[in-house]
Write a structure and sequence with these properties.
Number of helices of chain A: 1
Structural class of chain C: mainly alpha
Order of helices and strands of chain A: H
Oligomer: heterotrimer
Strand content of chain C: under 5%
Largest interface: B-C, 31 and 33 residues
Shape of chain C: globular
Chains: A mainly alpha (about 45), B mainly alpha (about 230), C mainly alpha (about 220)
Radius of gyration of chain C: 18 Å
Strand content of chain A: under 5%
Shape of chain A: rod-shaped
Distance between the termini of chain A: 65 Å
């Protein structure tokens, strides 16, 4: 059977990219959530 | 630093090495060739998905146990935060699992999909847990959302072995193809490294996601009027 | 014992409510017939293919009908605040669950039984192992759909976009029961040379036992708000 490296790289790339994107989204949302409250909020 | 973050970072380091080993050091499979290298992310993804959904089960049980024992106060919310995060991370890895499987299957079996018990069970499981996320999206009140999604999670998890055995029965009558499980010792190292690596990464992600869930919930309650 | 009396009383009330809205029963039945017709158009006029898969189409139609009947049964409670009233009484949540599930089973089983002659006619389906087994399969399978369906409908009738949520939650869950029911119906229709009927019905029965117990246990949790 041939190497099918393109398929292998696709699988690895997709997996790694998904984890990175998810991490990035989480960190961004966490930063937004932990930001000091907007003016006008009671605290 | 929090344990989940430590594990996550450790996981990343292990993953980098594991992938390098799996791609460039480990030998190619005698029969399948290089396509077999997908196993170094596929098997870890499978294990991680199951671990995530098992954490969901524990979280659901924890929440329900708290309800039944009538504990008051905020101690219980950790369970719900982890329920939300473990289901979401589980769904993500489950989705990756299915796609990796299809990428592997096409060159190997000639088809993207086959009705073998493992694949079918994963697909059903994935759909069930996506449905729990959808349910959570449509229920605003935090207490109700927590209880309802815990109940649905319990029902869904109990279903998984039932699906597996019934599909096994069903497809055995149609001669399902089974995949080779023999692992050459030289392949065992990257497999083991990545199995733990991906799991640690998932734990790190779940920890972050649970924290986000908690913050979002508190902020929502504060907006509403300050009852927690 | 008290719970049993409650259950019977609640079931009677449930039947009465369903009877009052029996026009809807007819509409759901017609919906089922329409679905069967639509399936044959989707497949084409190849009568041997239709006959071979008649079991599958019957259960698809039942599955689709179940979402309508389950959702409506739950919504009737929510509409008039009846659910809150029952919780305040107080009523044993499990008795309420079993009452609703029983009546839902009667409804869905009835609908399914009425679809059998339609399937036989439309798809030229034989009934080699006897009509009695076919009816038994329909009822066992209906009970399997209803058990988690009643639990889920109690949620989805009170959530936004509940109409979408019910099939989303229910359909993947009932795969084992669906599988078993379709296979059992298939061998009843086309003949059972290898004696498989018992095993498939056993699968559906196992699903029934598991979910009728589990959902009854969990239902009260949904009532406390």
């Amino acid at each position: 059977m041939q190497g099918h490296w393109d398929a292998v790289m696709l699988a690895y790339g997709l997996t790694t990219a998904t984890m990175c994107v998810y991490l990035g989204v989480l960190l961004a949302r966490l930063r937004a959530a932990e930001r000091p409250s907007r003016p006008g909020d009671s605290k | 630093m929090k344990l989940t973050n430590v594990l996550g970072l450790l996981g990343v380091a292990m993953y980098l090495y594991g992938c390098y080993d799996g791609l460039f050091i480990a030998p190619a499979d005698r029969f399948m060739g290089d396509i077999q290298r997908i196993m170094y992310v596929h098997v870890p993804s499978a294990w991680t998905t199951m671990v995530c959904f098992t954490i969901s089960l524990v979280a659901a049980l924890g929440w329900v146990a708290g309800l039944v024992r009538g504990k008051a106060g905020d101690g219980r919310w950790g369970w719900d935060d982890w329920l939300e995060s473990s289901i979401e991370v589980g769904v993500i890895f489950g989705g990756l699992l299915i796609i990796q499987g299809m990428i592997w299957a096409k060159p190997t079996w000639g088809v993207y999909w086959t009705w073998d018990p493992r694949l079918t069970t994963v697909a059903v499981m994935e759909l069930m847990f996506i449905a729990v996320l959808a349910l959570r999206g449509f229920v605003e009140e935090a207490q109700r959302r927590a209880t309802w999604s815990a109940v649905v999670t319990l029902v869904a998890y109990v279903n998984v072995p039932l699906v597996y055995f019934s599909v096994q029965w069903w497809s055995s009558l149609h001669q399902a193809q089974s995949s080779s499980d023999n692992v050459d010792p030289a392949m065992q190292l990257p497999l083991a490294i990545n199995a733990f690596a991906v799991m640690f990464i998932a734990i790190g992600l779940m920890g972050l996601r649970a924290r986000l869930a908690g913050l979002t919930r508190v902020a929502l309650l504060a907006d509403v009027g300050g009852e927690a | 014992m008290e719970s049993l009396f409650q259950c019977v009383a609640l079931a009677q009330k449930e039947l009465m409510v369903q009877w009052r809205t029996r026009a809807r029963f007819g509409s759901v039945l017609v919906f089922g017939v329409t679905s069967l017709l639509v399936f044959s158009f989707a497949v084409g006029p190849d009568s041997s293919a239709l006959q071979a898969h008649a079991a599958g189409y019957l259960w698809l139609a039942l599955l689709l009908m179940s979402t309508l009947s389950l959702q409506e049964a739950a919504r009737l409670d929510v509409q008039n605040g009846a659910l809150e009233a029952l919780v305040l009484l107080p009523v044993d949540g499990r008795a309420l669950y079993y009452a609703k599930a029983l009546v839902n089973t009667v409804t869905l089983g009835g609908l399914g039984t009425l679809l059998i002659p339609v399937v036989v006619a439309l798809y030229d389906a034989p009934v080699k192992e006897g009509a009695l087994w076919l009816i038994a399969t329909v009822w066992l399978g209906s009970a399997a759909l209803v058990a988690p369906g009643t639990l889920y409908a109690a949620l989805t009738s009170r959530a936004r976009a509940g109409d979408v949520l019910l099939p989303l939650l229910l359909f993947p869950l009932v795969v084992p029961a669906l599988l078993g029911s379709v296979k059992a119906t298939e061998v009843v229709m086309l003949g059972d040379p290898m004696g498989r009927l018992g095993s498939w019905l056993g699968l559906v029965l196992a699903f029934d036992v598991l979910y009728w117990s589990l959902c009854g246990l969990l239902y009260p949790l949904l009532l406390e708000d």
